Amino acid sequence: MAIHKILFASLLVCLLIQSSHGATKERLFSDLEKGALVVTAKTSRENVVLDAGIDKVTVTWKISSTATKEAEFKTIKVKLCYAPVSQVDRPWRKTHNELFKDKSCPHLIVARPYDKNEQSIEYTLERDIPTGTYFVRAYAFDANNHEVAFGQSTDADKKTNLFSVQAISGRHKSLDIASVCFSVFSVLSLVVFFINEKRKAKIEQSK
């Protein structure tokens, strides 16, 4: 009898988890209110490739005058997203209409409670940001942490107001400097060693 109760409880939990996942999977990007947030992204340097870990992007967002779901907004999450040119032949960056599958905006910039007043943040590009071309998108979430609306710093085709980032290489400038200093020290040490040996040899010969 006890085993039957355990099995029934396990089945019930599985069904609840499945139904919960199913609700999440049903959420589609195409169902979100488009342009509900006005988003801008201004880079610290213009018309150049930005350096991860160094350069900054100032992001601002505010409610659009055309938004119809503002009453549902509880949280705003601002994300760094790949532009189409940086998604080619990269399935791990692919855009999906089903939000739980979407991989185009993996880099969270900031999450804040919704405020009807204009908000902004000066974001330093993370050191682990991959090389690529990007834009910024802000999602509005409801009380159930579900996306209900969005706005982005580019157009619908994601071709305007983009910026490029160069990832940090495997070597760091400080390491390069230390390497050079060590090499110079090694060479000098070797020279001093040979001079001393040659001097010792002359002393021995003079004896």
Automatic annotation (TrEMBL):
Q: Which domain of life is it from?
A: Eukaryota
Q: Name one GO molecular function term.
A: nitrate transmembrane transporter activity
The stretch of residues making up the signal peptide is 1-22
Write out the entry's keywords from A to Z: Cell membrane, Membrane, Nitrate assimilation, Signal, Transmembrane, Transmembrane helix
Task: One GO cellular component term, please give it.
Answer: plasma membrane
Ranges that cross the membrane: 177-195
Matching Pfam families, A to Z? NAR2 (PF16974)
Q: Which GO terms describe its biological process?
A: nitrate assimilation; response to nitrate
The record's similarity note reads:
Belongs to the NAR2 family.
Say what the protein does: Involved in nitrate transport.
- Record's protein name: High-affinity nitrate transporter
Protein source organism = Noccaea caerulescens
